[in-house]
Every structure is written in C-alpha cells, then in structure tokens.
Amino acid sequence: MFRKMMKHLANNPGLKLLSILFSVILWLAVVNVADPDATKSFSVPVEILNKDVITEMGKVPGIVGDTDIAVFYITGPRSYVEDMTSDDFNVTADLSQVDLSQDGEAKLVPIEITAKKNDKRIDINRKTVNMQITLEDRSEQKFVISAETFGDPADGCAIGNVEVTPNLLKISGPASIVSRINRVTATINVDGISGDVSDNVMPVLYDENGLTISSELLEMNQSVVTIRADILATKSIPIRCQVSGTPASGYQYRGVEYAPETVLIKGEAAVLNGITAVNIPADVINIDGVSKDVETSIDLTPYLKEMGVSLVDDTANQVAVKAIVERKETRIFNFDTKDIKITGLSNAYELTFGGTTTTVPINVRALEEDMDALEPKNIEVILDVTDLVPGTHTRQLTINLPGDKYELMNSVSVQVTITDKNAATQAPGNNTGNSNTDQSEITDNDRNTSDKPQESENISDKDDEEDGQDSNQDGSPDVN
Question: Most exposed: 48, 69, 465, 480, by fewest CB within 10 Å?
C-alpha cells in the first residue's frame, strides 16, 4: 500500500509542485510567527564627501541647523532589526552633488543611507532626506590646548604638573563654526593612579557655554595629542604666623588667630620630608602703634614656591589672620603704710609716717583679667632710708609688681619723720636751760655724721658730763 502511494506521488509532477509550495508557505508562516517584524529609529551624523569641491571655490560649507544629523528608521524581522546599531550604516552627503544654481542661501545636498549588513532583510525609511548647507568664508584660528584631568589619584598622592604636547592646535573651517570655539582641552584619567601617567587623546572643542563642538566641516592640524600628568606625594603641615611691632601705649598684644591652621601641600617626597611648617615672616603682620585688632589675608603661594612645593588645592592659598590687641585698664590700690618694707633704718632711730593718712595710692595698669587677679598683698613696697638722719624727709617708694604684665603708672613718695630713740629718753634728765641747746647740738651733729649714729650718742653723753661739771662748779645751771 505504501509503495503504491509513493509510486503515485513520484509519477505526478503537479502534486510534487503543490507539495513544495505548501512547504514554502508553511515555512514562511512559521518564520513570521517566530520572528515578527519590528521597527527601530536612528540618528546618525552625516559624513560629508568631496569637500574640496567647495574649498576650490575659496569657500567652505556651513551646515544649516542640525541637518547634518540624519534621522531614519528601519523595519524588518525583529532578530535583524535589533541586531543593528548606528555603526552599521553609511550615512553620507556628497558635496559634488550640490546644485549651486539653487535659489536662496541654503543649498540642498542629498543624504544617502546604506546598511553595512542585513541590507536584504531590512527596509530603510528616511525622515531626513537632504542636508542643507551654506557657502561661507573660510576661517582659521590657533588655540592653546588646556590640560585637564579626570578622577582622583591614589591616597596620599596628588596631581602635579600636567602638560600637553603639542599644546597649540590650528583649526580651520566655516567662520560660523570656528567663531563659536571658546577653548580646547585634552583630558587624562588619573583615577587611582600612584605614579606618573601619559596618554594619547583627541582634543575636544567647547563653546562659551561649555557645550562640545563637533563638525565634519572642521579641520585640525593635530587629530591626536599626548598628555602627561606627574603624580606627587602629599603632606599636611601647620601654618605659623609671627607678629612684629609694639601696640600703642595702654594696649597689649594678646596673640594671633588664623584659619586655616594647616594646609595640604604636594611635591617630591625628598622635598616634603624636609618641610615641617610654612612660616609667615613677622614683618608681614605689623602692629606697631596700633590700638585695635589687625586683620589681613595672606597668600601662601610665594612662601610655598620658595620651598619647592605647592598646594594640593590651588584655591586654598589664602589665610585669614587676626592679630589681637587689647586695651589695658587702670586701677588704684590703696596700700597700707604698715605693710611698707623699711630698709636701712638704724637700730638707734625710729621712723613714723607723716600726715594723717595710713595708706598710699599705687596706680597700676594691666589687662582686665590680670588686674582681677592682682591684690595688694601681691605688691611689694620698699622704703629705703639708708642715708637719712633724724628729722622730717620726703622719700620715693620702690614698688615691685608681680610680673611684666603689670605696669606702674606713677611714682609714689611719702613723708617720714626719723627720731633718735636715745635722745628722746635722755632729754628729761637735763636741766631746762640746757635741754634746747643739747638737742640742737645733737641734731646738728647727727646731720653731719648721718652714717655714725653711735658717735652722735657719745657726743650727747659728753655734753651732758660737761654740763654737770659746770653745774657743780658754780652751783647753778648754765643759761645761754
């Protein structure tokens, strides 16, 4: 039975053709169900061909708007569509095809889009059909390439010198595009780097708003430049400020405040090892004759440069400094005369202070906090009477204050009376007629022999003996 059926099929061509057709339809149905159609959009920059056609005219093409970006979409089986990227298409505009006889400033250049693969499987539908150009004057300018870095070096490291070779870029193209160029940069990645690094990179053009400029119409004499970055060691060091001069009378320098107190510097490791601080010279902050705080800002850059290092953060070069000057206050202490230390007084003499007051005023100047700590018991007052003889005298006191932070504002003098203790006890034993004469003689002798009190005592005794002899001889007192 089976053999008869196979023989029947083999001998029937129509049936064979029908079987093949059915198989194809079935295969297409299966494929369509398993791999349905899909759509995908693209925006691809247009590659401009044969620019020399325009440049030979002494002109350069200028792009109108964004017409050098071709917008299109493709359709086809999903597996093929999803496999396509922008790099899988050739998008070109051939300037040799431009019709220069067109009216208006803008000229139309047809855009051609072809697929590099799967071209038999997909359909390309263009939204942008033509690129519009204008014929502009050619412009040429030179720009210095700025070196920039991306990322942060390894811990304990900082970016040192960064340079680009060559650092001059010549750009030519349509004047409307060249005039928009504000700066040109080359960037190197230093993220996590602990040693010197170099790389070959493409210069990037920016306008004044920081937006990149990219155009097929621009020509550069260097498409790639070399950028190198030195990686240096870092160290945190303190700042030390000194002050020169003396404030105005009645004011005292209290100290200096500044911020920041430390800075992070970078340099070769051998140089950093020998640096312990950045010192601001005293003549930079002068307080001579001032009566208020002195505030200023100091640039650390020149001092660090002298040491062969620099700041990790170039913007942290300013130090705010304030030299504090405080006004002193004056206070009068009434010092008890009984606490005055007397020196040079003979044992034969007695000293009493004149007047009715029992205190002397001592005028002291100091800072308020120091003044609050000062008490009369901390003050030493000395009266030296080494060269004084009996009588009334005015003498200046020696006043010693506890430390240089206190200033004596006035000299203090006291009136004292010195008497001879021996003369005072012998006066009642003398006759009335001789008492005045004897006392006068003692005073005169004492004034002539101020450094020999014992001798004065002997003279007084001798006079008493002579007076006694005279009295005994004539039996009556001597009246002068």
Answer: 480
CATH number 2.170.120.30 given to 329-421: yes
CA neighbours closer than 13 Å in the CB half-sphere of residue 1? 0
- Say how far apart CA 403 and CA 249 lie, in whole Å: 18
143, β-bridge pairs: 169
Residue 337 to residue 415: CA distance in whole angstroms:
11
> How far apart (Å, rounded) are the C-alpha atoms in residues 344 and 437?
29
Give the CA distances from residue 174 to residues 55, 94, 103, 124, 170, in Å, rounded to whole numbers and listed in that order. Answer: 10, 17, 21, 32, 14
Mean pLDDT computed over 175-195: 93
Domain 138-232: homologous superfamily in CATH: YbbR-like domain (2.170.120.40)
Calculate the average pLDDT of the chain: 83
Contact 390, 443 (CB under 8 A): yes
| pLDDT tens digits, 53-81 | 888 887 888 888 888 999 999 999 988 99
Check: CB of residue 144 under 8 Å from CB of residue 252: no
Between the alpha carbon of residue 68 and those of residues 114, 134, 284, the distances in Å are 16, 12, 61
The contacts of residue 300 (CB under 8 Å, 6+ apart) are: 239, 263, 278, 311, 317, 318, 319
Q: The dihedral of CA 119, 120, 121, 126: what is its sign?
A: positive
Q: Which residue in 303, 296, 229, 230 sits closest to 263, CA to CA?
A: 303
Largest CA distance in the chain: 206
* Torsion angle in degrees (nearest 10) through CA of 134, 139, 142, 145: 0
Sign of CA dihedral 233, 236, 237, 241: positive
Q: Fold for 37-136, please state it.
A: RNA Polymerase Alpha Subunit; Chain A, domain 2 (2.170.120)
pLDDT in tens, 139-164: 899 999 999 999 999 999 999 999 99
Which single residue is written with the structure tokens 């499987």?
121
Token pair, residue 133, equals: 């150009």
Residue 130 CA to residue 189 CA, distance in Å, equals: 40
Average pLDDT for 290-297: 94
One-letter amino acid identity for 279?
N
